[in-house]
């Protein structure tokens, strides 16, 4: 039969005493009417073992009395001892773990700080050894142009871009600082000198560069925001070529570079009068003005012949180093003080000291009007193809910066050159100088002269008093300048 619910008596009000533990004691009883009265330290609850009717106590059913006894912990030393043996080790273990964690954090922090100091000290030593102070930290952002500068030297800075070379980029391997590396915060920008499709050249001031005390004017070549990996590779190639060269009066000199982070900077000597092509074209306009006002011409025949001679000397130096230029033209020659010409722009240049021939495999805009037949049709470049380009450069100088093959498109130029067509002799050019040009345009590369031979031939012309370029007979309307053509470098 189901058992009735427990009938527990309500606890009586007892004085409060600190009770930490309850001890249950079960006492079996056979009496049916006698129950121990509750005391101050105990409570009795009746628990029936079976039920036969609602008045089980009257029928003599056995009852089990549950005696609940509460004993204060303070009165039991064994319990206190057990608690102490359990809690104290736990507290000691937690304390030891906390101390170990704090010690590990402090030790790790000291190691990191020591490493940072060590790296900073090594970097400062290397930069000091290369002529500069400690380099300021700078985010590797694309340089989008100059900001306003004060009179003091400041680090380059810019806003970030999200793609390509303009993004926050880091070189695959950070290049070691060497003799060419220059601190960026020693540069101060002035203005832009020129730009192409993917590159820019800025006029800047450098503090104590290349052994020079104090500030010096320099030109910095860098990449534009839209430049890709090919343009970056070309700029690095140009830098490597220039590092191979000793100073020469007719070759633009490398002063330093910034390649430890992007953007890349190639620092060159500043050549004040810019491109020979622009210099010649401006003189044509000035010559027309001087003729109208009965003034002497800005450039003379001797000046122009000297330009040819100086470029030949620069190219003789480069070819002697086993370097081909591949883009020799008036636009890539600079004019300095005292009308000194300097060969520049080595973006296409290659070192061929071992093979003597370079085969072009990449695509891009080409200087078609300056290229030899073997370069146009077989993608082969050598010193002899530079000789062909030099002949076209002489024609540019004689015609005061005119575009070669006037009136012909790129496809027509390629076909005519392959068929043996050559640039006509300008009316105001004497045969002696034109013969040197024609000598450079031999169909067989082996029959073309060397740059050493060209230097000798042009030097002989300079030793005479003859005007080989008769500027008074220059036809003002026979030649013209083409600024740009699709797919061509002009």
TrEMBL record:
Residues 187-462 form the Protein kinase domain. It is an enzyme of class 2 (transferase). Keywords: ATP-binding, Glycoprotein, Kinase, Membrane, Nucleotide-binding, Signal, Transferase, Transmembrane, Transmembrane helix, Tyrosine-protein kinase. Residues 52-62 have a biased composition (Basic and acidic residues). SUPFAM superfamilies: Protein kinase-like (PK-like). Residues 22-51 have a biased composition (Low complexity). Its EC number is 2.7.10.1. Residues 10-20 have a biased composition (Polar residues). GO terms for molecular function: ATP binding; transmembrane receptor protein tyrosine kinase activity. It catalyses: L-tyrosyl-[protein] + ATP = O-phospho-L-tyrosyl-[protein] + ADP + H(+). The chain crosses the membrane at residues 83-107. GO terms for biological process: cell surface receptor protein tyrosine kinase signaling pathway; positive regulation of intracellular signal transduction. It is a single-pass type I membrane protein. One of its GO terms (cellular component) is plasma membrane. ATP binds at residue 221. It is found in: Membrane. Residues 1-64, 118-139 are annotated as: Disordered. InterPro entries: Kinase-like_dom_sf (IPR011009), Prot_kinase_dom (IPR000719), Protein_kinase_ATP_BS (IPR017441), RTK (IPR050122), Ser-Thr/Tyr_kinase_cat_dom (IPR001245), Tyr_kinase_AS (IPR008266), Tyr_kinase_cat_dom (IPR020635). This is receptor protein-tyrosine kinase. It comes from Graphocephala atropunctata.
């Amino acid at each position: 039969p189901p058992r009735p619910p427990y009938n527990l008596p309500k606890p009586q009000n007892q004085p409060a005493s600190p009770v930490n533990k309850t001890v249950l004691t079960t006492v079996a009883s056979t009496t049916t009417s006698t129950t121990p009265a509750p005391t101050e330290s105990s409570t009795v609850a009746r628990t029936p073992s079976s039920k036969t009717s609602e008045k089980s106590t009257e029928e003599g059913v056995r009852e089990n009395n549950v005696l609940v006894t509460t004993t204060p912990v303070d009165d039991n030393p064994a319990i206190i001892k057990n608690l102490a043996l359990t809690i104290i080790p736990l507290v000691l273990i937690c304390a030891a773990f906390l101390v170990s964690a704090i010690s590990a954090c402090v030790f790790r922090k000291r190691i990191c700080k020591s490493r940072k100091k060590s790296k900073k000290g090594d970097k400062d030593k290397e930069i000091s050894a290369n002529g500069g102070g400690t380099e300021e930290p700078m985010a590797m952002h694309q340089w989008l142009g100059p900001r306003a500068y004060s009179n003091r030297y400041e680090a380059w800075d810019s806003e970030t871009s999200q793609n390509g070379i303009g993004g926050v980029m880091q070189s695959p391997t950070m290049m070691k600082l060497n003799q060419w590396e220059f601190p960026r915060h020693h540069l101060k920008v002035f203005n832009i000198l020129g730009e192409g499709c993917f590159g820019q050249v800025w006029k800047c001031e450098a503090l104590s560069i290349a052994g020079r005390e104090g500030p010096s004017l320099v030109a910095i070549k860098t990449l534009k925001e839209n430049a890709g990996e090919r343009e970056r590779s070309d700029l690095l190639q140009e830098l490597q070529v220039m590092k191979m060269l000793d100073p020469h009066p007719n070759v633009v000199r490398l002063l330093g570079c910034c390649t430890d982070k992007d953007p890349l900077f190639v620092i060159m000597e500043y050549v004040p009068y810019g491109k020979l092509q622009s210099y010649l074209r401006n003189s044509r306009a000035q010559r027309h003005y001087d003729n109208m006002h009965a003034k002497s011409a800005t450039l003379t025949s001797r000046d122009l012949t000297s330009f040819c001679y100086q470029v030949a000397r620069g190219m003789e130096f480069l070819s002697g180093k086993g370097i081909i230029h591949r883009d020799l033209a008036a636009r890539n020659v600079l004019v300095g003080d005292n009308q000194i010409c300097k060969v520049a722009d080595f973006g296409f240049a290659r070192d061929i000291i071992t093979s003597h021939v370079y085969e072009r495999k990449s695509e891009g805009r080409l200087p078609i009007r300056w290229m030899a037949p073997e370069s146009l049709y077989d993608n082969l470049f050598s010193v002899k193809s530079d000789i062909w380009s030099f002949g076209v450069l002489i024609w540019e100088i004689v015609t005061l910066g005119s575009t070669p093959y006037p009136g012909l498109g790129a496809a027509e130029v390629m076909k005519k050159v392959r068929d043996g067509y050559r640039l006509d002799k300008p009316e105001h050019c004497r045969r002696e100088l034109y013969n040197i040009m024609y000598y450079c345009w031999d169909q067989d590369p082996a029959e073309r002269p060397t740059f050493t031979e060209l230097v000798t031939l042009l030097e002989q012309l300079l030793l005479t008093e003859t005007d080989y370029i008769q500027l008074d007979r220059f036809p003002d309307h026979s030649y013209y300048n083409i600024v740009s053509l699709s797919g061509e470098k002009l």
